[in-house]
Specification:
By secondary structure, the protein is α/β, with parallel strands linked by helices. The chain is 42% helix and 15% strand. It is globular, with a radius of gyration of 17 Å.
Length: 264
């Protein structure tokens, strides 16, 4: 592995081999998402518990302090919205010069395997990898499904993850699935990070699916709304940090959540 890519990945993936990425990029297609209306205020108390921020360039510039900042994974795909016809019709939004200028540790791009825009988004990924590899910047591919949540099952996810890795992604972000997630991870030759998915009803649900995904081979998570939309986001972030980096049980992580919730 190239020194630059290895160095940048080491900022994101901690010495224990695990990671906790905090995405605050929902606004790029959802607008002012609930509890993310003011991203800077939302993330400030959560920063001690995450390893990196996943963010667009606009929010990075306007809402994130540059001095002492967490490493950044820059969202570089977009061009669609909830008001449009198809979320899969994405393009590249950010140049390599801008990526370098913003000192991103990595970049993230969505691919929509099986959609009408499969070829376009896969070629977006390939083009981005070609450009970023020249500058030692790792690419994280996101196996997005748009509104088609029925695709969140092992056979589809394994296909999408493997294709992303084959096209040069250094990390793949994908959804957890109850059955066969270990096959998704086993079939992907690069590290897999768990996406947050739909907002869960309880904290215990979140902790259980994260624990299961880690046990089955994922190296960490990229969880947003199940953290910052929680009524007690700091407690949730602390519990997830314990689960990921301290390798606690679900029960202990849940107890940490309850303790932090009751003492803040």
């Amino acid at each position: 592995m190239d020194w630059g890519i290895k160095n940048r990945l080491s900022r994101l993936i901690q010495p224990d081999g695990r990671c906790f990425f905090l995405p605050i990029d929902k606004g790029y297609f959802q607008g002012p998402t609930h509890r993310l209306e003011k991203p800077g205020q939302t993330i400030k108390p959560l920063l001690p518990f995450c390893d990196a921020l996943f963010v667009t360039r606009g929010v990075l510039r306007s809402c994130v302090e540059a001095v002492g900042a967490k490493p950044v994974i820059l969202r570089v795909s977009g061009g669609t919205s909830m008001a449009g016809k198809d979320l899969a019709n994405e393009g590249l939004t950010t140049s390599i010069e801008e990526i370098i200028r913003l000192n991103a540790s990595a970049v993230g791009i969505s691919i929509f395997v099986g959609s009408d825009y499969e070829k376009r988004t896969l070629l977006n990924l390939a083009k981005l990898v070609n450009e970023c590899e020249n500058y030692g910047i790792p690419v994280m591919a996101i196996t997005a499904v748009g509104r088609e949540t029925e695709k969140m099952e092992a056979r589809y996810l394994a296909l999408a993850c493997r294709i992303a890795a084959e096209l040069g992604a250094r990390v793949v972000k994908t959804y957890w699935c109850k059955d066969g997630f270990e096959k998704v991870v086993e079939g992907c030759p690069v590290p897999v990070v768990i996406a947050g998915g739909p907002k869960c009803d309880t904290e215990l649900q979140v902790l259980k699916f994260v624990h299961d995904g880690l046990k089955k081979g994922a190296i960490g998570v990229n969880l947003g709304r199940n953290v910052w939309q929680n009524a007690h986001p700091v407690a949730m972030a602390r519990a997830l940090h314990a689960l990921i980096h301290e390798r606690t049980s679900v029960k202990k992580a849940h107890n940490i959540f309850k303790h932090v919730k009751n003492t803040r």
